[in-house]
Sequence to fold (455 residues):
Amino acid sequence: MIGAQVAGLLSAAEEAETPNPLLPETYDIVWSLVIVVILAFVFLKYALPKIQKVLDERTELVEGGLAKAETAQAEAAAALEEYQHQLQDSRTEAARIREEARAEGAAIVAESRTRAQAEAARIVENAQRQIEAERQQAEVQLRTEVGALATELASKIVGESLEDEARQSRVVERFLDDLEASTAADAGKGN
Amino acid sequence: MPLAADDSGSEFHAPSLADFFPPAVLFEGTPFEINRVMIVRFIATAVLVTIIVIAAKRATLVPGRFQVMIEMVMDFAKKGIAYDVLGKKLGDKYAPVITTILFSVFFLNITGVVPFLNIAGTSVIGLPLIFALWVFALYLVDGVRALGVGGFLKGQLFPPGVPKPVYLVLTPVEFLQAFLLRPATLTIRLFANMMAGHLLLALCFSATSFLFFHAAATLKPLGAVTFVAGFAFYLLEVFVAALQAYVFAILTAVYLQMAVEPEH
Fold:
């Protein structure tokens, strides 16, 4: 359609002595050349290299930034690793210390128990020993006193001529009274 | 202009080839004649140079919105065209040329849809021709430089993998292809597209104007149709301006690749 139109217009152009559009006029070539040279010069010698330089710089910057970020990330990962390692170590250490403390505590308890038992045993022994000593002392004292009393009783019985029963009983009662009195005196002295 | 003879404006003004050869403004008849199309080209060039120089001057490591846009196009020219066609190494070498062509052709195309400019800088054959000749010269010089005269001619004229007698037919075809058709098609594809685009737009809008203001009442509704069509073609032309710049850039890459890479 367009072709037909152009062809029609071409014939119309010939009639009106319009130049053949396929044959360039001299001025057309001249100015076209000027324009293309200007554009080529501005683009190729000035604008494109300058913009390209900025683009390259940007690429470099971005790549540098990425590399830096990567390094930072690696460092962070290493730090985390180390931190976790340390944490693990401290945990182990803490567990060990706790274990030791527990063992030590148990030892201390056991030792105190032994010591208390020994002390108790010692106290009991002392008490028994004291009781024994007091018992022996009482026995000795009793023995001497019974002897003296027996002797006194015997001498009284002998001295009183044991004829009648009434006298006899009197003597015995007197003796018992004496004995009671002396015991009371003794008890008062012992306190 | 047989269809627009009357100056009263009551006649239908069909667009014609005269649009592409407007009267001279300065230096008439000299090789430096300046007409409307040349002025449009100067404006497009000045705008593009201003934009790219500002972009280069203000280029910073942290780009603003404007810089990002420029960089996106540059990135597209480099990765989407140069690397894609030429590979990394050659792509890096030719990316600047391809980027320049992409930007330049696009800006000189887009004037066709810029109000008040209304004509593409590339719709007159001279400019597409110069761009094509630049590519042509580049691939001749760099092809010879890369492969030597013999290697270059052998690669261009004797494609491997065919029986010897076939060269009798193939070699002249390849010769035409390499030394005439590639630059010629590069030129004509761009120029014809932009020219046709202008004719279409001008036709639609002048028809709209005529139908609305000068046609019989019964025909006036048709003006709405042509207006809508004109609007659709306008959008199409915006797309075509970008597409043709892309096509020119990618063919530049393809031709350079064919010239400097030994045939496999």
